[in-house]
Design goal:
It comes from Amylibacter marinus. With 149 residues, the chain is an alpha/beta fold. The protein contains six helices and five strands, in the order βαβααβαβαβα. It has a domain of 102 residues: Rossmann fold. A five-stranded parallel sheet has the order 2-1-3-4-5, with helices on both faces. α1 packs parallel to α6 and α2 crosses α3.
């Protein structure tokens, strides 16, 4: 069985690549948001035209990104949501809520110091971890029932 996994959240580190490398030998298909920050921010005005007001600039981009995100979360069997150290990822919390509302299996990844701030998100998740390696091990277990050696 192929697992379809959407990797949502923080875009400032290589956690996605670490998970993909950890799952290279199992049947997993990954999808993700656009991780080039400028492209993600400016997609709306690049395609639909410039906006003088920053609110509408951001609004256009957010809506185009939402098309991609809704499709990817809808197609996913599992949604992994990473909350990073440096920035507050409000979009990641939104993605986690959307995935939960759609009945998707959600794995949340963050450091221990964010535990209190993310308690509601964690409560909705089926697994809460701190490392990419743990996510890869969960996906391997779901895929073939094997435990880490």
């Amino acid at each position: 069985m192929t697992l379809n996994v959407y990797l949502a959240g923080e875009i400032h580190s290589n956690w996605r690549e670490e998970i993909m490398q950890g799952c290279a030998d199992i049947d997993v298909q990954f999808s993700a948001p656009v991780t080039d920050h400028d492209s993600s921010d400016d997609c709306g005005v690049a395609i639909m035209g410039a906006e003088a007001d920053k609110f509408w600039h951001d609004n256009k981009g957010a809506k185009l990104n939402a098309i991609r995100t809704r499709k990817a979360i809808g197609d996913a069997d599992i949604v992994v949501v990473r909350f990073g150290q440096k920035y507050k990822q409000w979009n990641a919390a939104f993605d986690a809520g959307q995935a939960y509302a759609l009945g998707k299996s959600v794995i949340v990844m963050h450091q221990a110091e964010h535990q209190h701030a993310l308690k509601e998100v964690d409560a909705a998740a089926l697994a809460v971890v701190e490392t990419s390696q743990q996510v890869a091990q969960i996906l391997r277990y779901v895929q073939d029932g094997s435990l880490p050696t």
